[in-house]
Amino acid sequence: MTPPVRIAQISCGPDYAGVQAEINAAAHEVNGEIFFPDITLKDIRRDFDAFGLDVKSPDLKLAIARAMALVEGRVEADAVFIATCFRCAEAAIVRNELRRYINENSKLPVVSYSFTERTTAGTLLTRMEALTTIARRRALLARETQSGITLGIDSGSATTKAIVMKDDKIIGTGWQPTTEVMKSAQDVIDHALSEAGITLKEVQAIGTTGYGRFLVGKEIKADLIQEELTVNSKGAVYLADKQHGPATVIDIGGMDNKAIAVMDGIPGTFTMGGICAGASGRFLEMTAKRLGVDITELGPLAMKGFGGTVPMNSYCIVFGTQSLVNALAAGSTREDVAAAACHSVAEQVFEQQLQEVDIKEPVIMVGGTSLIEGLVHAMGELLQTKIVVPHHSQYIGSVGSALLASGFIKDE
Amino acid sequence: MTAYTPVHAGTVTKYVIVESFDITPAELAVRGYEISKGAMIKETCFGLIVNGMEEEVDRIVTELRKADPDHIFIKDRGFPPGDARRCRASLGGARPGYHGIEHEMTVIPYVSHGLEEIKKRDESTIPPPKNPLEHHVLAIDKLKKLMEAQES
Amino acid sequence: MVKVFIYPATSLILSDMVARFGHTPLSSAVAIRERIQTPGLESPPLQITPEEPKKGLKWAAVEVPAGVRGRMSLYGPMVEAAEAAIIINDADLSFGCMGCARTNELIKFQLREKDIPKLDLNYPKNDEEGVQFVSAIKKFLEGLGGAK
After folding, report:
1. What ipTM describes this predicted complex?
2. Most B CBs within 10 Å, among A22, A36, A74, to test the B interface
3. Cα–Cα distance, A316 to A348 (Å, whole number)
4. Domain A149-229+396-408 falls in which CATH fold?
5. Burial grade of A328 (CB within 10 A; 0-12, 13-18, 19 or more)
6. Which of A7, A73, A263, C127 is most deeply buried (CB count within 10 A of its CB)?
7. What CATH number belongs to A242-389?
């Protein structure tokens, strides 16, 4: 067994919120090991002064000193997990500044998280898996071309996708809403294979990602079972042909949203919406339903409207839907309501997620929601940049999986 | 979550911390072993950790303190000695409370000095320490005088 | 013997002084010991489970961070049990159980609200302040009466 990935924990409060055991369990699940950088009181006094952020909580002073010990190499680690209490302003400032400081001054992958007493190992698992993957599989993530014949499956919370690739080209696709995890996976695999005109036997390596990755991966004997944060980043920069230098990947998913700051195709920092699923693809799906259009028509509809006239806040999916109904009742046009819904989701992602990563161009939007033109437009307006939506962006997880899986082809 | 069964239930643990020129933690540990009737004694860099039934632990620490009363300090500890949840070896770094003790160790010599001195002096002559809640501000007439002095 | 809340509750010096002069210090260690010696669900390192922040709702509302409420589940009952308090006001380097400034503000406020004898101090910075510090604590504790 490979030695565990050493994850340095920089935190304030998890042991008093009762969630330290959950953090340990999530790390353990992905063969990671949480440890606390060892420093002395002298280090704390000196580093706290040197960092210059004059916080009052002693444990945050300790966190600052521990971060400096990691960056300066006085304590060795493979990755960093920063965790502070949700709703603590003082800690949020420290969390953000330390995340940025570590990201800018070291090669250590960092994930930051604000927990409540309800945070579970399950919630943390994808983040921990991404953290350990980046630390452990740098060589695999450095792969820039696909070779041989590979299959990638993305078993997402809303939809299941499959891609067949051959010699760096996409030759087959499959897509359908997720119902029964295995059945949906089998259907999209069959579709992708028949479109590609090959049989499963010819496939040389398989990769899975998404919520159902473990179940599907085990069932079809995948060579690579990998969380969607690293896979999607890889897929995004590959499809957008931005494999070198910085990039920001935004994936507004069916249940949660991801924002990933990427450097040379490898995630540096990332966030994943955790506390509430309000501003997600699901809200847009509900909007389309209420407006009586197919989800594929929502984007073009929104492009014809003007969202500024309709007040809408999708922070909470229930209240968001209520303002949608109110707006229609008050006589707003369907076009304006569609535009407002897109703007609201983009705004929520901007406020909730994008503040936790440093946005560097190009900004690449992926996932099924990237096909909703109105949403991409709203995000571009908020970020004041032209958003890149690569071809096959709705298949991002499958493409990333198929690409990375080619590293597992036996004769390679 | 799995069920938790405590070990050492019903016992107490105390730190005996030594900041003395006359006795080292190692010497104090030897004394501890001599007088201990079944209590667990562990030597640390600061002094000792004693674990056992409350009466026995109290008897031992009271006895140990006699070796140098003004330079030996005692404090409760939540965990029994060597508990993996607090152990530096398993945490990778010191538990946060350690740094707190590290800080107080820089103050302890003044406290020891105080303990020695109050026995020598007439306590009624020792002034109270400055009250940290009283914030002394410069009286306005005094400020005026200072300004006038600057101007002339 | 009088139950004396010590602030910082992790203080070696205050814990020692209170016991040395015959009273009972109310310290973090005793609250933690109570938890790690009680059977229940496993929640290392401190045996503070996600239930504790919910118990902390008695002292702080739900919008207060979980870490504050979890800590208050330790300190709230101690503040309620306190019959006197010694408070060191410049305890800026007390980590762990006293590592959260927001919790510490709340504890201090609750002690101030309570009609019990209180002694406010700073850490001594030199020998002479050490003498005044020890003398003040001794007089305060003797004044409480009932020392062991």
Report:
1. 0.96
2. A36
3. 10
4. Nucleotidyltransferase; domain 5 (3.30.420)
5. middle
6. A7
7. 3.30.420.40
